[in-house]
Amino acid sequence: MYYEATNNSPYKVWLNVYSGWSGASGYTPRRYNGIVSGDCPQSGGVILYWNDNYNCDNGEGDPGYRQATSAGSWNTSGAFDDDASSVRVPSGWSVMLFKDPNRGGSSRCRSSDDDNFAGNTFLDGSTLNDSVSCFDVFNNSNCSPYPVTLYPDHHYTGSWCAAGSEGCFYCDGLDNAASSVRVWPGWSVRIYQDRSCEGASRCFASNDSDFADNTFEGGTPLNDQMSSFRVFHNTSCDSPPQDSTPPTGRITSPSSGWATNSCPFTIYADASDDQSGVDRVEFHVRYDGSWHHVGDDTSSPYSISWDCSLLSDQKVDLTIHVLDEAGNETMDPGGYVDVILDRTGPSGAITSPSPNDTLDSSPTIIRADASDSLSGVARVEFHARYSGSWHHLGDDTVSPYTWLWDWSGVPDQAADLTIHVRDIAGNESMDPGGYVRVVIDRSLPAPTNLTATSGSQSQIDLQWDDNSTDESNFHVERSLDGATGWTQIGYTAEDANETTYSDTGLSCDTTYYYRVRAHRHSDGKYSDYSNVASASTHACCADANEPNDVPGQATSISYSAWQHMGLDICPPGDVDYYAFEGNAGDEIIADAMAGGSYLDPYLYLHDVDGVTVLAENDDYNELDSHIQWTLPENGTYYLKVREYDHPFEGGPDYWYWLSLSAGGPNLGPLVHSAHLVDDHEVHQTVGDGDNVADCAETVEIYVTLQNQGLLTANAVTATLTTTDPYLS
């Protein structure tokens, strides 16, 4: 072992004494009978052989070799003593061969293979072949365990004293007794006559096997006169320059932001100084608002165990101060490391689903809130209890915390949901928000708010609210009294999520009752029925000419002075076509009249192709329509009547009259309408009005005439009788 000294204060170095290392770990003697050269080991540490050329054959029952696979010192012993003739040395290793046991006598270093000791000598000039009694193995090529090794005898023999770093040293066992020195390449040693590295001295930058022929630099004898020595990691025995550079360092563990719920914990740091070396690392912690010196370490790796158990939960700052051997100090060289002391569990609760919610289709999203005031939430674990036991569903590490629960394999039952929340410091809160009980129920909720609306004489439209999430479609049933005779009449499209249905082909002026239920194909389940809704189809239409909705169905008529009665636009959207034969030059007069009806008639004249509109009219006389037109050619022409607000209005109360005539010079006027007017209208008394004739009152009758001729009527007379319909 060795000690390092600084500031010219020598450290005592104890002698390393090797006595009888033979048979120590790493040393392998083997015994072979009748061995041949090819059977000798040729690798695996340092190997001494009985014969030259690495041959073990000896004929004396000895293994014929000595093998060491690690550093150490061994006596050859037995028949092998004074019988070694060759050696193998691995690259980067070395072996010191001694003439006498226990590292005694002269020696010789070998750092590579030697296939024949013949002709080689120890340092004292004596023959090496068949003369080795002890050997030291080193895992370096310098035949020395340390950069500087001093020996009590010349030729590097005896119990040595060594130093492995720069500094001033002394050895009690070698005080005034050193006779040789080994120095690694790149190193040097100054040997002093006095303690504390003072007095006469001499520098050695290489090995010296015998101090007897050497002196101190002043000329006095050197052999057996050394009392201390200084080691340098250079070849000139120069002292390092004065250290004015402060050391460096940093905390390596824990890292900034680390959180813990346990005390104590270990703080680790790196520190270095490229000149005098690190003296110590001081550890400091800021907590409860002030800094505290919590401990030091003087050897690398630098660390302390800090007990924080008496502190309250809080964020603390860690730092170090590094001092070197020259007295330089660096405070906070790596900055601060913030650490969170957190022994309080996090909080949280399930936010969805709500207690007593029914789960009717899988999967279900479970949502949760979670928080932690110090270290933060690490993860939220989702758990469910069903079928008598708890099940860990899964975890989420990012807010908002959710888990998609596939419960398709769970039978219908009540289930409890909960969470466990873990924070970054390692604290866990189990069931922080209690349990949320839900019910797994795959039965289908019934549709609601069913309404029925009449669409026409033959159609009723249905609409409802869908309250389920996984139905396949809806089945519709109908009854004539709402209580009995229910019959399924249809269903909505598969997986279309439709909530409407139109029942067609119905009888006019009839009341129908309806109900709806949801159906799921996967398990054949039905929901309960919806409410019952009813509606009546439109009143029946009485127009005997129907259907005449297109030219191909047109009702045939001809020129006539009379009116076609009993016609109607029914149901809403109805259109009536009439066909008549006409000749080129005919001047036709057509009227659609609806006095007293809900109809606002719109009249068209179509050409012989049934498409081209030759004339159209609306509101010629109040709401009535009138067309007067000269036909361009012989052929079949068409009149079309529709409701002005087509196709939104129509029904039995939308009746009208239609007249068609061909005018000429000899045709008289046609009475179109008439009404009674008070002769003294401007002087009427209360109660008087049109179409009201008082006794002995003079009245005027206004008659609307339609001129059917081509000549202008200059004077028109009419004979009215008490039986005339306009006077009834």
Assign the CATH architecture of the largest domain.
Answer: Sandwich
What class, by secondary structure content? mainly beta
Specify the overall morphology: rod-shaped
Specify the biggest β-sheet: 6 strands, mixed
Q: What count of domains describes the coordinates?
A: 6
How many beta-strand segments?
53
Helix segment tally: 0
SSE diagram, text form:
Layout: E1 11-12, E2 27-29, E3 46-49, E4 65-68, E5 72-75, E6 86-88, E7 94-100, E8 104-110, E9 134-138, E10 148-151, E11 161-163, E12 167-170, E13 180-183, E14 188-194, E15 198-204, E16 228-232, E17 248-253, E18 258-260, E19 265-272, E20 278-287, E21 290-297, E22 302-306, E23 314-324, E24 329-331, E25 337-341, E26 347-352, E27 358-359, E28 364-371, E29 377-386, E30 389-396, E31 401-405, E32 413-423, E33 428-430, E34 436-440, E35 448-454, E36 460-465, E37 473-479, E38 487-491, E39 500-503, E40 511-520, E41 525-526, E42 533-536, E43 555-556, E44 563-568, E45 575-582, E46 587-593, E47 601-606, E48 613-618, E49 625-630, E50 635-643, E51 655-663, E52 669-678, E53 699-707
Parallel strand pairs: 1-12, 18-25, 27-34, 43-45
Antiparallel strand pairs: 2-4, 3-4, 3-6, 5-9, 7-8, 7-9, 10-11, 10-13, 12-16, 14-15, 14-16, 17-19, 19-22, 20-21, 20-23, 23-24, 23-25, 26-28, 28-31, 29-30, 29-32, 32-33, 32-34, 35-36, 36-39, 37-38, 37-40, 40-41, 40-42, 44-51, 45-50, 46-49, 46-51, 47-48, 47-50, 52-53
